[in-house]
Amino acid sequence: MARSIDYGNLMHRAMRGLIQSVLEDVAANGLPGAHHFFITFDTTHPDVAMADWLRTRYPQEMTVVIQHWYENLNVDDRGFSVTLNFGNQPEPLVIPFDSVRTFVDPSVEFGLRFETHEDEDGEEDEAVEGEEDPDGDDEPPRHDAQVVSLDKFRK
After folding, report:
1. Quick one: which of 76, 74, 50, 63 has its CA closest to 106?
2. At 41, which helix (H) or strand (E)?
3. What span, in angstroms and rounded, lies between the C-alpha atoms of 124 and 104?
4. pLDDT in tens, 29-78
5. Within a 10 A sphere around the Cβ of 96, how many other Cβ atoms?
6. Per-residue pLDDT tens for 95-146?
7. Are strands 110-118 and 100-105 parallel, antiparallel or unpaired?
8. What is the DSSP pairing of strand 90-96 with strand 79-85?
9. Which residues of 4-40 are buried (b: 16+ CB within 10 A; e: fewer)?
10. I want to staple 34 with a disulfide (CB 3.0 to 4.6 A). Which of 22, 60, 107, 126 is the partner?
């Protein structure tokens, strides 16, 4: 069996680590400037902890906003917990990093999207894509880009 580098898994871990570092900084120092986060997560993940009424309302996934009002933001290697306000009702949430589907900071147009793909063996494999559109528009954002062909580097 040939050994190969699992770039998808490596990117998965690196991007989860980035989210962890950002949230640890916010937990210690608060949100700087206009930064705020839209975090979408899989509510069916077995380690997600949330109120039953929220799980009933969001049976598959949920997007939370960490911006003006949040309390008790705690981060560890597995995920984070935070208390958020839902209609003037504070609710604690426990969100494992493995349940996160998107992480967006619209103040600086930064976003990550984690997608689950089935591989040839039927096992799920996580892959990471770069930008999420926080406005929910179907049309992707336009950026000036340069296409680079790697053919000249092949042997």
Report:
1. 63
2. strand 37-42
3. 24
4. 999 999 999 999 999 999 999 999 999 999 999 999 999 888 999 999 99
5. 19
6. 999 999 999 999 898 999 987 644 444 444 333 333 334 444 444 343 333 3
7. antiparallel
8. antiparallel
9. eeeeeeebbeebbeebbebbeebeeeebeeebbbbbb
10. 107
